[in-house]
């Protein structure tokens, strides 16, 4: 009877041992599974955060590109307006004052030889342009591609407005180069002074040439679209 009890105790002990080992393995497996799930959850959260950060950076980049495009467009427009003469500009250059001759007209001489004409102004302006003038005005009338300078009796018309002497020409550019272009030997200044026309050139570090305030008339000109189609 005693021997049977010992065998029963041994069997129960063995069974308990097997059950404990199985329970331990199951617990370990569950723990490993939980760790795996936790790591998977952590990775999922990290991925979500990374995707969110990526989207935010993409939005910021798109905003920057849009702002850069807008700034570039505004800069291009301002540059075109400046080149078209539609904005006030400033810089170094020369100021030229031209007045009719004070020399008394002799008998049998043509008095017009001692007066300033449109062709005289045009010669001065042409030399300034050849000297690299970047902006020019005559009596504060900005010269653009459609500006006209022509005589109107004893006066000169500029941009449709009539002016009498003296004429003040402002030109932005390198002062030395502009002055040299006008005073070269046999040039326009020497020719005008022969008839007593008063001409004074001042080099300035900073002058202002005002914007063109007239209107552009484009009745016949048409832009050509890309590809050559009108």
From TrEMBL:
Residues 40-67 form a coiled coil. The chain crosses the membrane at residues 7-24. Keywords: Coiled coil, Membrane, Transmembrane, Transmembrane helix. It holds the Pfam family DUF881. Belongs to the UPF0749 family. This is Bacterial protein of uncharacterized function (DUF881).
């Amino acid at each position: 009877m005693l021997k049977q009890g010992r065998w029963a105790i041994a069997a129960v002990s063995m069974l308990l041992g097997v059950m404990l080992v199985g329970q331990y393995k199951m617990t370990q497996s569950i723990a490993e599974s939980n760790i795996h799930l936790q790591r998977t959850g952590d990775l999922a959260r990290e991925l979500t955060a990374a995707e969110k950060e990526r989207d935010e950076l993409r939005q910021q980049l798109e905003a920057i590109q849009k702002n850069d495009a807008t700034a570039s467009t505004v800069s291009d427009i301002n540059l075109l307006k400046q080149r078209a003469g539609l904005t006030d500009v400033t810089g170094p250059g020369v100021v030229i004052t031209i007045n009719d001759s004070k020399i008394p007209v002799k008998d049998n001489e043509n008095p017009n030889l001692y007066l300033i004409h449109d062709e005289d102004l045009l010669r001065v302006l042409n030399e300034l342009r050849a000297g690299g003038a970047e902006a020019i005005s005559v009596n504060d009338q900005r010269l653009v591609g459609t500006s006209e300078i022509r005589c109107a009796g004893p006066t000169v018309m500029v941009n449709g407005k009539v002016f009498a002497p003296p004429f003040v020409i402002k030109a932005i550019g390198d002062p030395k180069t502009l002055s040299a272009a006008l005073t070269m030997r046999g040039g326009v200044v020497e020719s005008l002074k022969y008839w007593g026309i008063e001409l004074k050139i001042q080099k300035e570090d900073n002058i202002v040439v005002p914007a063109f305030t007239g209107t552009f008339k484009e009745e016949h000109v048409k832009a050509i679209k890309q590809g050559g189609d009108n």
